[in-house]
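Need tokens for this chain, all 406 residues.
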Amino acid sequence: MFEKSHSITLLFNASKVYDRQIIEGIGRYLQTSGADWDLYLEEDFMTRLEHLDEWSGNGIIADFDNPAIEKALTKARVPVVAVGGSYQNQADYPQVPYVATDNFALVEAAFEHLKQKGIERFAFYGAPLNPQHRWAQERERAMLELTRREGYECYVYRGHAVRPETWQYSLKRLTDWLKSLPAPAGIVAVTDARARHLLQACDHLGLLIPERFSVIGIDDDELARYLSRVSLTSVKQGCFDMGFQAARMLHRQLQGMPVSKAPVLVPPERVAERQSTDYKAIKDPLVMQAMHFIRHNACRGIKVDQVLDYVGISRSNLEGRFKEERGHSIHTEIHNEKLSRACKMLKETDEAAVDIAGVCGYPSIQYMYAIFRKHFDQTPVEYRQAHRPQSLDDLPVEGLSKFAAI
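Here are the structure tokens for all 406 residues:
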């Protein structure tokens, strides 16, 4: 017996990575549950909020981080499941089934990651107070509570809203704040977008990352990874799981089954570690300079002599400093940087192995194959296959529901 078809509207901003991943989770639930839903994802629903309660469909899944959406659905005549951020004050949760990203756990994951690197000074780059960004204030509170609990001081800067006409002024104020911070320090940014501001400001000032400031964001937004020279470490939210659970809640309601109104908190998925927190507690300033040069130029085929020219000291002097700080030679550091870049590209891109060899500064694809055989006992192709996550394209498509834009 086939289940009755339902018309469901999704109130999300599909231009944001957070919302898209939630929508993806909803789609996965429909694939695996057999629910027969027509999904309506309206691109400009904000212009029709006043009439949402008149919608004649069967259910709604909506982003309640926006107070205007929450207010518009208070009199909805169909089941509503809300998605948004968690709150320390239980009274702030809506009176409908609610799935939340655990803001405290997100910040805790970032904080613990920095602590594990041996960092003992902390800062938080948040966002201006805004009723539509309540999650930002929750994350700021979490950072202050975590650092206070551990006995650390935390330097907080909310910055300015991003607007083209004031961007240069905002960037200048951000650089002023960075120059005032003690170093080395770990900075948790409220989002990847704000983390990218930090990377840009540090680049302008010539402040080394991660030697001076280790930066970690929240979202694991693929776009942010490629818009800065230093790849960004980030906490990946459990957005996919949020969408899956929200769809399951709505499905239960449509079947006449009870659903608890107690908020469901979804923890972060993982910390995606990259260059911006590759902190090794280096104390020698000359080794720090050399590391900075190697990080930015290893894949251009540089040799040890070029590193020596950049730092301006003898080979025996710098080699001795490297052995003391890093436990290996300058040549090994260059080698490790190239290999790390090749591994990252194999895991995160679809570039051909021969092209990756060229980008990473290997003289030939055969040479890169020999390197991978030596280190991993795998070819680059085998390494990619072993480290790539399962794609949605690999999943069965039976029961795939219909999507439509209105």
